[in-house]
Amino acid sequence: MWSLTLAAIAAGLLGTLAHAQNFTINVPAFDSSSVTLDPPNSWTTVNANQAFSGGAEFLVANQAQGRVTFTFPTPSSTFEYWGYQRSGGGLASLSIDGGAAVQIDFFGPGTTGNEPPLLFFSTSNLTNAIHTVVIQNLVDPRVGHADQLNVDKFVLHGPIPSPRPTPPSFPSNTHLADGPVGFSYHAFLALGADSPLNGGSGANTVEVLFDTGASSAWVDWIGCTDPDCGGSHHRYRPSSQHFFNSSIEDDIFFNDQTWRVNDTVTLGSLSIPSSTFGAAFGMDPETVDGNFGMAKSYCNGVLCSLYPNFIENSFEQALLAAPALSFYQLAPTDAPASGVTSRVALGGVDRNKFTGNMDWIPLTSSSMWQVPWGRRFVTRASGTIDATLQFNHEILTFDTGDPGLLGVPSDDWITLTTLTGAIQDSNSNWLFPCAASLTWNFNGSTNRNYTVVLSDQNTAQTINGTRFCAALANDSGDVQNWITGVPFLDQYYVSFYFGRRGVGASMGFGTKNLAASAASSSPVIGTP
């Protein structure tokens, strides 16, 4: 019988839930359900010093024919073999799944037999699967015979994934407020006096980034006298009906300073008469008219941002049937049918924008859109390995405001570049083998895999017989979380589901539908 122990993995971020745990399985040598000792009747159980579970198995007869076969009782990417040194000699070969054998040296000329067991072999580079290990006793040329092959225990480690989330269900009165999306998650809002709700035409809009990596909002407005306001920007004009200035100043980011105001926000068919955002009175040069943070406003039911974003505010005021923000953002490599364009939908999921079922993934309780854990597979020239346990940081943040493919904490960057065989050129720029990739599995509702190629395939060069390409991932320094941005998100139809005040929040990923039907809209009723 094998034993299982659990150790919670620290989340590394205040307010985050550690959904993943590690398992450790110790399999004693006498566990006949996983271990076969050959030849039969040639082994005996010895109460050796510190033997796991009270006894280790020693080969006491027919040493030249000794063999141990161990089949994993559960999938794992790691393996350890523990045993005892022998003073009379000791040499064996170990192979996994019939692969190349390695030698195990358990000869200890000075051993007295009272020492504790030693770790003879370990690996963490296996695929996460059931593996079979064969240990074959060998003649030790140093003593001229085979000696007492022995096993104390085998040890497996691995992550226990969080339970798969239940996809959100959209009510029968779900309707979508749909609008165009410009470059990289830029939406167009009619604010204040320009909203049809306040007598505006709705045609005068501001272009704002819907930024899932930010929790507050700013927009250029007619009251701003900063030199970087105005110019080519479209500007927010306060309404006479719903404008209210709280006289609270907020420093948002990148030196953007705002008055916290309330006014009307309109996108497509949705108009919320009064929602909070920031009217900028100081800003750096910007290419957009504003930035509307779309991080979760609530963390487990408690407001954890300066104020609710207008989507959650609309849901609270029953203007939306569901608190969802869904993007159909066409990537540069997409080839959609004529008339199909990038769109954003508020209030639900658009059935016409994806095929198959969406994969809904669990999130942390943080305001950021973060998955707490994911199994990570690294593909390199020698094959694919489950590298989950080799990385120190578990959390991955999804940020529509980040133009990069993948930012990796420095210590995990060292691991990633080492595993893939990445190198630096003469200018210290990183190059990955062109075939290197990283695949996540977030234990989502459909168990989907998400693969990113780590380099720009258009930059290939051959170095010492290997094709290398310029890195698309980067070392993000002394940070605690991985982060992925626009190039990753662009691959999918993505829905950010806020839950009710943060409770039940989830993210859904679907395969984009590029056919002509994607030009029209149809809300999902029930589970997408």
UniProtKB/TrEMBL annotation:
TM segment ranges: none
Entry coiled-coil feature ranges: none
Tagged with keyword Isomerase: no
Family, similarity comment: Belongs to the peptidase A1 family.
Organism of origin: Exidia glandulosa HHB12029
Gene3D superfamilies the record matches: Acid Proteases (2.40.70.10), Galactose-binding domain-like (2.60.120.260)
Superkingdom in the source lineage: Eukaryota
PROSITE patterns linked: PEPTIDASE_A1 (PS51767)
Protein name: Acid protease
GO biological process per UniProt: proteolysis
